[in-house]
Amino acid sequence: MGLFDNSPVVLDGEWGVAFGLISSPTSVVGRAQGYVGTAATSGKVIRATTYTPQGTDAQRSIKSSSSSDSASGTGAQTIIINYLNTSFQLLTDTVTLNGTTAVNTNATDIAFIESMQVVTCGSSGGNVGTISIYTGTAGGGSVWGSIAASDNQTYWAHHYVPSGVTCYVISFTCGATAVAGQTNINHSGNPLATNIPQLQAGVTLVHVAAGTWDHDFEVPLAFPGPDLIWLVERPVSSTTSTAVAGFEYIQF
């Protein structure tokens, strides 16, 4: 084979998407990552804060526990909500914060949340307080998701697969600060469906205490949308620890 012959260039799919060679409005390379505190041997979803999907399209509201998180404050000033409606379209909404006063979202069809993150901030470098999204407008209803103080993003190790595309999980990482355990990839199928079980996909990854393990899938795990993929940790002891995990994917 000569250096300048006509042999085709072979490129892995994830690099093709990343370089824009496989291109469509829904072609993405992504990563879902998170952490969670553990103190028991029961399974625990790897999300830094509690998340309760709503499953109905509606306008919501946002507020912080700190007055520093505002348009002219030293903390978070604006945040972006990456969300899906009940048609499982992935959309975004940017909201300017007003401290401890709730601000309504611009979007009126927020049913599920992929992630939230700080977009602009003041001298503090991020959100000073806990930024919460409420089920209703004007701070009404209940909190169904939040960004922990100083985290700047939700750190939820989950991913919603929109309608019309397939998500291919290509790698998987897990670990913990103090306790050995096992981490599973779970999925639910259509999040609007009822009476469906959560199912494990792929291998169970076992990690040592105070260490991490990585796994690359020789055959990527395929999840046709709509679907929800998330990670669950099961520690081997009830010692206090923090579990960390994430997965990488391509989607088109």
Quick overview:
The protein contains one helix and 16 strands. The chain is mainly β and 252 residues long.
Notes on the protein architecture:
This protein is mainly beta. It folds into 2 domains: 13-48 and 156-251, Jelly Rolls; 61-147, no CATH class. 2% of the residues lie in helices and 47% in strands. The chain has 1 helix and 16 strands. It is globular. The chain starts with 12 loop residues before the first helix and ends with a strand.
Structural key phrases:
16 strands, 47% strand, single chain, Jelly Rolls, 2 domains, four-stranded antiparallel β-sheet, globular, five-stranded antiparallel β-sheet, 252 residues, mainly beta
Structural class, from secondary structure content? mainly beta
- Output mean pLDDT: 92
Helix-strand pattern, N to C? HEEEEEEEEEEEEEEEE
Indicate the overall shape: globular
- Poorly predicted sequence stretches spanning 5 or more consecutive residues: 6-11
Number of helices: 1
Per DSSP E runs of 2 or more residues, the count of β-strands stands at 16
Strand content: over 45%
The description of the largest β-sheet is: 5 strands, antiparallel
Helical fraction equals under 10%
CATH topology of the largest domain: Jelly Rolls
Alpha carbon gap, first and last residue: 33 Å
Class of the largest domain in CATH? Mainly Beta
Rg to the nearest angstrom?
20 Å
How many structural domains?
2
The name of the CATH architecture of the largest domain is Sandwich
